[in-house]
Amino acid sequence: MATFFNDLEYYAVLAVQPINYKKTQVMWTARAVNYFPNPAPSLKCGDHVIEWTNNYKYLGYWITTKLGWSKLIDQTLLKIRQRTALVNSCNFAGASNVKARRVLFSSFVYPLFAWLFALMPLFTRRQQSDLSHAYFTCLKRVYRCLYWEDFLFSVLYKEWSLDMRCIKYWERYGKALSKSEDGQLLLEQLELCTHRQSWLNGNIRIWQVWRNQRYINRDSVLGTCLDWCTINNMDDSVPAINKDDLDSLATFPELF
Prior knowledge:
Number of helices: 9
Distance between the termini: 66 Å
Radius of gyration: 25 Å
Mean pLDDT: 81
Low-confidence stretches: none
Strand content: 5-15%
Largest sheet: 3 strands, mixed
Helix content: 40-55%
Structural class: mainly alpha
Strand order of the largest sheet: 1-3-2
Number of domains: 2
């Protein structure tokens, strides 16, 4: 580790890029949390002591010792709740309009949900479900109808679920990839990964090439996201329900 910091300091001098020691920290990552060495080793870069940290923020994303997404989701939901409260508190001439609150929600709150679309297929099912429920809860706060169920609210106000909006995002992203050179390289890598996995599973054979137990499965991140979109894709996440059926549900809920 000392050699690494010496090389880093040497590179910083050659590249005329001074190191910001106040923002330079080190983090230990491992599957087992208790595997962290105790006491923590002392690290120095020149005459400056490098501090240990449990998490850090990089390009808007939170990285933790377990390399999970919980910290990122919690911090994003905190900002979403704060902005939703500000949207609900906005008044014009002493009154609040539903349409105005919906526009403010689309402008200031929804972009925070859209920020997670690139990673949402990689979240656990529990995290995806909690995010979808939080999205409907914020919308219901805007419409002032918190007492309704998510499904009924989606039907009445014709609001797409967060999963469906994420799928639409990935569809547009896939079209953009197919039109760029870098996107073509990513799609070729995905096809190569799929072909390699089929060979490892024994579905296809390659002449004079034998499988070895040291070969491991390699799942493509792009392939995982596209598979998630295929599994969860629906033509329309808002079902078409007759108004008479909704009136019957409101009048005779025990029959449904």
